[in-house]
Design brief:
single chain, 3-stranded antiparallel beta sheet
C-alpha cells in the first residue's frame, strides 16, 4: 500500500517582511550559510535557518510559497 505525502500549506510571510527581504549570510569563521528575512533595523536575519545546498535555499522559499528569482 502506497501512502501519498500531503503537501503542507505555505507559511504566511512574517509581519513587516517581503520576499525581497530574504538574504543569505555566510560565517567568516565556519563558512556556514544561513538564510532568513533581513531586518534593516537590527541588521540581523529573522527566522533564520542553516542551509547547505541550493536545494535548501529553494526549500526555504517554497516554505513561504515563494519562488527564488535568479
Amino acid at each position: 500500500m502506497m501512502f501519498k505525502k500531503k503537501k503542507a500549506a505555505p507559511l504566511p510571510l512574517p509581519d513587516g517582511f517581503t520576499a525581497h527581504d530574504i538574504k543569505t549570510e555566510s560565517s567568516i569563521c565556519t563558512g556556514e550559510t544561513t538564510i532568513g528575512f533581513y531586518n534593516k533595523e537590527t541588521n540581523r536575519l529573522a527566522y533564520a535557518e542553516l542551509v547547505k545546498t541550493e536545494t535548501d535555499i529553494d526549500a526555504y522559499y517554497a516554505k513561504y510559497g515563494l519562488t527564488r528569482e535568479l
